[in-house]
Amino acid sequence: MKVAVLDIKGKETGRKVELSDDVFGIEPNNHAVYLDVKQYLAHQRQGTHKSKERAEIAGSTRKIKKQKGTGTARAGSIKSPIFKGGGRIFGPRPKDYTQKLNKNLKRLARKSALSIKSKEQAIFVVEDFNFEAPKTKEFKEVLKSLGLENKKSLFVLGDSNNNVYLSSRNLKRSEVVINSELSTYKILNAGSIVLMEGALEGIESNLTK
Question: What pTM was computed for the model?
Answer without folding.
Answer: 0.84
